[in-house]
Specification:
C8orf32 fold, 2 domains, 5-stranded antiparallel β-sheet, 34% helix
């Protein structure tokens, strides 16, 4: 019995010793990893003190070098040509969105109105009517605003700031030692000092909270960078220090970015797989780095001082693709769009999210495929598709597509970006629902979105010099202008050629070969 007891005690002691040894090993490994991380930061700080040089800054590219037309052509409505009546659209599925505020019951706008026209010569918007759209805010009864918290122990974050991020009220805990001050003018020595100071402070607590916010709001890379900058603005109340904070946090998050400076300002430099149209850039070791800001400024500068090489962990380039629309406030706003199609008049209620519109306004202009591939906010998509499905169900596939074409052609008024904004500004699908005017790429993006979602047809974007249109692959033969791509026939559908039917290309682009934009 004693031998058995001694054996059990020996086994227990061995297990406890092994567990203690394992915990010691884990602690040593963690300390070594932390030392390695700190060593990387230390080496990078030393690197920043020395290896800077002036780089020439290249002027930002234009989204389109050829100006878009001030006025767009219009087809004179005569006897409409019959469309194929095959492939009837029996039922359109519109997925229900995540829970959202109920629309108010009082003074509810009729969802869709259809009636025969009685010798009316003109209809709404582009088709000539003087009637104006109306809009109203859709809200729930007032409730206390929820304050988002970064889920971090307050023992490590004794102070807090409030960040109003597109009406999301965020509370960010931080250690006051992060509030580093730098005397101007800022140069590479000061930047190295900033890096060294922050890397030795408790920045991980702040970084973890910001990553949680990024996930909760479903932000992509650009949204995350913007969130970091807004946090930096609150922490430092200085644009240059906010920019340095953004650079530091992006680098610690694994993004390939740099900081540049001249006598006037500090600039965040981002490497990306997409083009930032209109943004100045410089080339470092064959890679473009775009000088970005978060205020839509148009500052011009000839050169910037920066460094070659990157932090050892900075390997990820900025991706501007939108997997989903950001999850901001659920407040929606309504807008009425009216259009006419072959003797029928339609009134459609659309909705949009004001916070998303505000966010997209500071989004960089980038490659057109990003806009074609981007989704709407789920609640917005549901309301828009629900409205249009009532018009399309029971009609042939060709006629349904033609109705969507007329909806975009005549339900929205045309102006170029220069006329409306004084700058280039491509729209995400939801933006066209909000702004009073839109141009050819905006219309093409919206039309493509609706055709793919409602009719499940393949669409291509057609990028001509000075113009953007679309082409749709139908299941039956549609007469008219078309292109061949990858062995398939796609019928030209131009949402900017007013009153044009399927298969009608704008005359000046009829014989021109466009660049093809593949749409997912």
């Amino acid at each position: 019995m004693k031998k058995a007891l001694l054996f059990l005690l020996l086994v227990l002691f061995t297990l406890l010793w092994a567990q203690s040894d394992y915990e010691t090993w884990k602690a040593e490994q963690k300390e070594q990893m932390q030392q390695f991380k700190n060593e990387q930061d230390r080496q990078f700080a030393e690197f920043l003190e020395k290896n800077w040089k002036a780089f020439n800054v290249f002027k930002g590219e234009k989204l389109d070098e050829v100006p878009k037309p001030i006025k767009v052509p219009r087809v004179e409505i005569k006897e409409p040509k019959p469309l194929p009546q095959k492939n009837i659209v029996e039922a359109i599925e519109v997925p229900a969105p995540t829970p959202v505020q109920d629309l108010p019951k009082e003074k509810k706008i009729p969802e869709v109105e259809t009636k025969k026209l009685e010798n009316k010569a003109t209809v709404q918007s582009e088709s000539g009517s003087q009637a104006e759209s109306t809009s109203k805010i859709v809200t729930k009864p007032k409730v206390q605003k929820k304050q988002e918290v970064g889920n971090v122990s307050q023992t490590k974050a004794t102070n807090a700031i409030q960040i109003n991020f597109f009406q999301k009220n965020l509370r960010l805990g931080y250690d006051k030692s992060l509030q580093v001050n730098l005397k101007e003018p800022i140069d590479n020595k000061k930047i190295a000092e900033f890096w060294k100071e922050l890397s030795q402070k408790e920045f991980e607590t702040v970084l973890k909270q910001l990553r949680n916010f990024k996930q909760d709001m479903e932000l992509n890379d650009w949204g995350y960078a913007l969130l970091l900058y807004k946090a930096g603005e609150q922490l430092y109340e200085d644009k240059n220090l906010a920019t340095l904070f953004t650079w530091f946090m992006l680098t610690q998050s694994g993004y390939k970015c740099k900081i540049g400076y001249n006598d006037e300002a500090v600039k965040l430099l981002l490497a990306s797989g997409q083009v930032f149209f209109g943004k100045p850039y410089l080339k470092v070791e064959g890679q473009r780095y775009y000088a970005v800001s978060f205020q839509n400024d148009s500052a011009k500068f000839a050169n910037l001082y920066t460094y070659e090489g990157n932090h050892a962990d900075a390997k990820q380039t900025m991706n501007l693709f939108l997997q989903q629309a950001p999850a901001f406030s659920s407040q929606l706003k309504e807008k009425i769009v009216e259009f006419e199609y072959r003797g029928e008049e339609f009134k459609v209620k659309l909705v949009y999210n004001p916070q998303n519109i505000e966010y997209y306004d500071v989004y960089p202009n980038t490659n057109l495929n990003i806009y074609f591939d981007s989704p709407m906010k789920r609640e917005v998509e549901y309301e828009v598709l629900k409205q249009l499905k009532q018009i399309l169900e029971g009609r042939s596939q060709a006629e349904a597509a033609n109705i969507l074409l007329r909806f975009v052609q005549t339900g929205f008024q045309y102006k170029t970006d220069a006329q409306q904004f004084g700058r280039e500004k491509a729209f995400f699908p939801e933006e066209t629902l909000y702004y009073p005017y839109c141009d050819c790429e905006d219309r093409s993006v919206l039309f493509s979105y609706l055709v793919r979602k409602l009719l499940k047809l393949e669409v291509l974007g057609l990028d001509y010099p000075g113009h953007v249109a679309t082409a749709v692959r139908f299941q039956e033969e549609i007469p008219g202008d078309a292109i061949s791509y990858d062995g398939k026939r796609y019928v030209i559908c131009d949402p900017t050629y007013i009153n044009a039917d399927l298969g009608m290309a704008m005359p000046e682009f009829k014989d021109k070969k466009p660049q093809i934009i593949q749409v997912r």
